[in-house]
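Known limitations

Files may contain more than one protein. Parsers should not assume a single record per file. Below, a two-record file is shown to illustrate correct handling: read the sequence, read the token line, then continue until end of file.
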Amino acid sequence: MHANIVVYSYHYLLDPKIAELVSKDLPKTSVVVFDEAHNIDNVCIDSLSVNITRRTLDRGEGNLEYLKGSIERIKEVDENKLKREYQRLVEGLRLANEERETDAQLANPVLPDEILQEAVPGNIRNAEHFLNFLKRFLEYLKTRLRVQHVVQESPPSFLRDVYTKVCIERKPLRFCYERLHSLLRTLELNTAQDLSPLSLIANFATLVSTYGKGFTLIIEPFDDRAPTIPNPVLHFRCMDASVAIKPVFDRFQTVIITSGTLSPLDMYPKILDFRPVTMASFTMTLARTCICPLIVGRGNDQVTMTSKFETRQDIAVIRNYGNLLVDLTSIVPDGIVCFFTSYVYMETIVSKWYEQGIIDNVQKNKLLFIETQDTAETSVALHNYQKACENGRGAVLLSVARGKVSEGIDFDHHYGRAVVMFGVPYVYTQSRMLRARLEFLRDQFQIRENDFLTFDAMRHAAQCVGRAMRGKTDYGIMVFADKRFGRADKRGKLPKWIQEYLKDSVCNLTTDEAVQVSKKFLRQMAQPFKKEDQLGLSLLTLEQLETEEMQKRVERTAHVM
């Protein structure tokens, strides 16, 4: 049986560990479509990044002992098996190289081309020698995790230190990933023993010795969230998203990257380092104006609404955000979803609202549910939120941009008649990994720090407010509650289908003005709307699609692209 269409997470194609098992035999003529690809650069980076903790190393040691025992057992039963494997390694990885050259298999960024043309180094061909080699490398990593302050270095600097301290050269490290998997295939182990920690360490060894540029190594003595508790972590972080996606572009004839919030388009070819054949941004063809985006920049007291760090503790700003929510709950039916910039900011705002009596006023109109960092609690809150929307009571869900609710959960129809984005969702800019990536983007692709941070914030804001619009029969209010959304650099980075309804007249509203515009919009949406009203505009019958006029319109659109 052969499938014509395969639908799966794009981690299966971009993460080399999974692609090696699942996707490497896909034919070259396949058409690859990355849907919802607004975060594709982050997926690429995560697939080639490694985090190693002290626990990883301890479990890796246990894995080594288990493998040593397995080798002893196989020696007693079938020593020829190990000899045959040794011979294969002497001959090199020619078979894998041939399959890659003939396009029989997808290339693996963890296994670069030059490795496939060489024989495995002599000091790691023997299974026992290889395990001793890994043991030495593992002990070295343990010493590196004994740090009192943050260390950041490049892969060449790390390799120099490895060679100086434990005499491990770069070449055998490059073969660790493939050598370990060859050994596991030879031993034919059952899956009862979890060997992922050792596999992770071998993966890190190969990556750090293969890529000199586009990666950085950061060792932190503790987690930022608990700076008093020693918990060292080694982050080997990929800075260059193009490394993971390059094998996909090289192998497949047609690769399509698409999303409803892929904006601005010109940023993606830069950060993924490719030249697109076609780039197109489409608006939505609607039979009625069912999107109502608003930028609320001021409260009724004319105090500027913003989540800027300098003013986020301002009582007047917090009160105005609360009054906006109370007013919306009194006019919007069913469900309202609110997004904050972070969990800490949401907790601060909610505690202040509680003191000001705003929470009580909200609950007079609708039930209130809050997303937390606990997955089980959030699932219960979401279930009860949907229940409240279904039985007519109405509800408000407070959640976080980049949280669990902002990605992948649809609030269609009565589940989300309004979405409020409180503040511009900038990423935490003090993160060392982010600083390193911004530096790389500036040096390598000439992307300015502020441009990338704004691009990242706006794609997440668009993703959040887009949760409410899930079809042409749906309608919803999108409230951007921060004056900064009205600036050209922010507004211009929103998707085209939102921008075209974001007129100048709704770009700096007060709370009262926003309520009046929302009331008018909801009255229009309450009018009867049948399937017949959409025919010929946003919905076409087969006969209408085949008409000469429609064919010309399609050709004209294709020509414009």
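...continuing to the second record:
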Amino acid sequence: MKLSLSCIVAISTAATSALAFVPSNSRTSIVQAHTSATARCISCNNQKQSTHLRMAEDDEETVISTPADVSELLGRPARPGRPLKVAIAGGGVGGLSTALCMLKKGFDVTVYEKTAAFARFGGPIQFASNALSVLKEIDETLFTRVMEKFTFTGTRACGIKDGLRADGSFRMTNDSLDYLWNPEAPADWFVKFPLKGCADLFGLPYTGVIDRPDLQEILIDECKKIKPDFIKNGNACNGYVSKGKGKGVTVNLEDGSTAEADVLVGSDGIWSAVRAQMYGEEIKKTSADGTRRQGCTYSGYTVFAGETVLKTDDYYETGYKVYIGPKRYFVTSDVGDGRIQWYAFFAFPPGSKRAPSGWGSSERSDQADPEENLVEYIKSLHEGWSDEVMTVLDATPPESVEQRDLFDRAPEFLRSWADGNVVCIGDAVHPMMPNLGQGGCQAIEDAFILSETLEGIKSTDKLEDALQEFYRKRIVRVSIVQFLSRLASDLIINAFDTPWSPHDDLGKSWKSYLTFFWKPVLQYAIFPAQFAYLYSYHPTGNMGGLPAELEKKWKEQHLEDAEKAFERVAEDGQSVAAPSFFKIAEQAATVMSAKKN
């Protein structure tokens, strides 16, 4: 008699269930009662179950092995199953953006953050047009709240200025080549960036900055609206055990406890504990010469940073400026409320520490020489430079100056960002130089694309493949952005110099001639292509007239806020204008009251 496949499976499954209630010494006789047709039934793929039978002929004992199916259905509002459970290591911009994006999709998300409570620390962070598009696609409310705290820079003149020839008056001039035959023509501006033009090409909001504490407050608040206890402070992730396909991951926490999740997202910064385990690194282990640390390479540059409130003649007309000169460059940016943030980049050996640091974390080291005036030190390194640089430095409270050695990583073409049910994003796996302001932007892109990739997964046994798919989606674009960010520093420091001019002797080296000939190539080819590529990822599509509306509304508020700040400084003095954007961490105010229990 022939048995249908469904009958065979039913008989086999029923027998297997019955064995669980039969003493072991009685099971052989029960199994031998099965027909040989039943014995040949191996599996039922449609039900994703496996029942293996090994039968012996005549009087030999038969053994049945029935490993349980560990995969589980993952639900969505219109799909049966439980929510995907995600653990996120690190509560920075990347981690919080990932948390919000995933919570919006119905995932069960928990963030494990090392700080006991979120304090208001950290300087402004740049969001280019591509990141703003992603933020709007993640959540309309998030985007609206970010815009309320935003300072646009890409709506105004941004570009490279001659650090030696800028006349010191902060005047607005063109960047044409007419100074070659006209000795009276100003040569202040070397080249301008087409930020506004490239944003208009795709119909996107313009590049700008937001204070990191404001951004964190917004992200935390929006996450807590969905899951009030989504974040666990004071208990960082320091390792994991990926338990195999469909079995999830055990997250090891700093206090010795563990947590279970389907997926662990490592978003714990450049000195990532998650990446350390994934790639076999030792956290913050540094080579003897200081050029390598935990798999990251010293870029060759250290950067000093400071902040001041200062009304220059071009304050309302410029967004950010890069002053170039021999072996260094100096950057200034409007960051709102009358403030100018500046960065001074130098090609110094690693460990050339003079200023305090605490960049990107809540910890702040001491100044090497407490009596040293760091502003005067930095001025001494810019001897002969434009008075525009000196004016900004003279207005800076010395106690606001910070310093950081810059490290980045080579693209991971030969190693995935994922290990089983664990994946790294943002600075944890692709830190980059700050020149293009794309570090945070790429972390937000990671958050969005990872969430989109996981949203379509219907069972836990597909998660490992999904994480590898995410890596494949991101590796090419991120690697290009890493390369462009590093190239910007290398060109400015190693290949650029004061441009050649027929009217003076300030630029006479071979680098000066090379810099001069680079001008039209940069202006009309490289920079338009670069920014067009950066903005080419914009999941919202063209936003029509919205960018112009946002700019108009912001412009009025920006003028009002800046003038108030300028008046305050005129009355009270520069020293109280604004605390160091790292010393803000020492203030009592916190973003949230959650503390380690």
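Parsers that stop after the first record will miss the second one. For reference, the second record is described as follows. The radius of gyration is 29 Å.
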